[in-house]
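Reopening this ticket.

The earlier resolution said the output was attached, but the attachment link was broken on my side. Pasting everything inline this time so it's all in one place.
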Amino acid sequence: MSTKIAVAINHGVGKQDKHFADGMIADLMKRFAEHLPAPSPKEEIVIEPVYWAPVLQSQEDFLWKKVQQHVDLDFLAMRQLMIDFAADAIAYQPAPKERDVYDNIHEVVAKVLHGLVEKAGPDAPLAVIAHSLGTIIASNYFYDL
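Inline output:
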């Protein structure tokens, strides 16, 4: 048995679906299969999404409801965009006495990486594919180690 490759896919800001990485995973497996004589890619590569959006989504949904209460607002699309996108980046920033979001997101990363070790083995090389804030999260996670 050869050494497997572990891949973590980390999404960026915005409202994310738990299936955010499905298309990329399918494409990676297909391309990997084109260059692998045998066995199948599922035996050689393990890919897991890092779905950290739920750490913040319920709070952002609550904020959106509060913003709309008792007021007739203009620029709703812009306001929604700011809550869905900017709030992720703002909330992720650790402060000296306020690290809950930062630590909770890093806990999600840790669980996924632990799962990759379980599935691919402790000697598997790790590739991280990240977008936007997901890149910062991955960088900070490894820096903090």
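Reporter confirms the inline version is readable. The beta strands are 5-10, 45-50, 126-130. The chain has one domain: 5-144.
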